[in-house]
Amino acid sequence: MADGHPDISGVWWGGADVGAARGGRGGGRGGARGGTPPPTFMSLYKPEAAAKAKTLGDKDDPTLRCVPTAFGTLNVSLWDVGAVGQIIATPKMIVMLTETYHGYRLVPTDGRAHRDDQPPAYRGDSVGRWVGDVFVVDTKNFTDNTWMSAEGRVSPHSDQLHIIERYRRVDANTLEIEARVEDPEVLTGPWIVPKRTLVLAPFDRILSLNCSGIETQALMDAAAKQSGK
To answer: pTM of whole model > 0.85?
Structure first.
């Protein structure tokens, strides 16, 4: 960019739609073949948090009511519950857009602190800074009524959730993302999110994927019937 920092703009995905050969998984979800799977957010729950999670099921998933996740089902915050997102970078603001649930994050890069005049938000409050060629995003001030993930991953969190992400554009077509998640109210320690490798999509803008809650009513009814409640 004009200020000398790498331009991380672009539409980023995992290389294919979810369910295709590469699954849009941004580097995959598991560990090496035959190895031990990496820890998940839920595997670090304190006993009381794990007990609470066992009382919840599909019918309680906030995303069925068009509420976004706090992080992302495929461990990519940019995607939320989808598999594609767009970044628009300027010297003073990085804009992160996701197709699902009209989602966006505005990440100022001018050195300002977190806002103290705003109520908690579904996706928190983010500020960013450059450390060399790495863009670091610090996000906190979350509500406590979302899940970290969706689609069967019961993953509530507290309002003490704190996420630090590191974005690095490896080359013209590759973006690496690392993240550290802290939640002292419900976790025994920080969750180090497995590194995600995204690639530049062959299209230059995301689509509008609308959600009003009406579309998911049948899913909520089915989930409630299955649970017997």
So the answer is: yes
